[in-house]
Amino acid sequence: MARATPLFLHLFIIFVLNIGHFAAGLKCKQGYEMQQYGISKIEKGECLSQNDKYCLVVNCTKAQGAADKKSNLTSILWLCADEQNAEKCAETYEKNGLCQCQYGGEGIDHGNEQFLVVSTPPPVPSSEKAVRCKYGMIYENKLGVAVRTICDEGYHYCFAANITKKASGQFFAVGWGCSKSDDAASCTEIEQIVKSNLNNNDLSFECRFGDRGANFANEHMMAHPLFEKSVTTTTTAMVNMAN
After folding, report:
1. Which CATH number fits domain 132-238: 2.60.40, 3.20.20, 2.30.29, 2.10.60?
2. pTM of the full structure
3. According to the UniProt entry, where is the signal peptide (predicted)?
4. How far is it, in rounded angstroms, from Cα 204 to Cα 178?
5. What's the CA gap between 50 and 203, in Å, rounded?
6. What one-character DSSP code corresponds to residue 47?
7. DSSP letters along 129-187, please?
8. Portions of the chain given CATH number 2.10.60
9. Does the CA dihedral 153-62-149-205 come out positive or negative?
10. How far is the CA of 237 from the CAs of 19, 57, 168, 195, in angstroms?
11. pLDDT tens readout for residues 188-198
């Protein structure tokens, strides 16, 4: 089954990057944590809107492999909210998996710090040496994330995809990840995943694959001047983008 992880990660990153430092009254824990990737950005600060009354934590879990349900992806958001509606909140974030929303008391500063959040079990070690690849997606506006990761068993290739807008031919994004094969069908599958998650069919893809078993072979593929200073971090997450 195809994985949609890069966009899952990316949407969380974009959301929390908009958290600012403007004075608005209520103070909450704000940020995100992607446990499977070892990525987090958390801070305590005042909410953006004077209408915010609650501090909220959103905890989402998404199975990476539907068949064996191994390698669950856990994501946590801390943010501000102007109303208390756990059902509506869960529906808002349902594309990110099965989500639970918990609110602090009305007008209570840092009310979202008290809740326990679920943890992701460690990945099951493989008897086969795992391939390591650059993984993620960065857009033309520099939003997104790219990390170093360990691929699931059976994923032998690192790939990079240059994504442009069909209509104009303008640069849209660069994506990196793991793949089971290095053929045109794999590139087509990557394209379908990204288009589906972005709900955008006006995209064109060019894929490149590293040699079988070559670690981080995609790290400098599809180099773009926009990302010359991009920083990658190391994590032991087992994630993939294409079957």
Report:
1. 2.10.60
2. 0.47
3. 1-25
4. 19
5. 39
6. -
7. PPPEEEEEEEETTS-EEEEEEEPPTT--EEEEEEEEETTT--EEEEEEEEES--SHHHH
8. 132-238
9. positive
10. 26, 23, 36, 24
11. 988 888 887 77
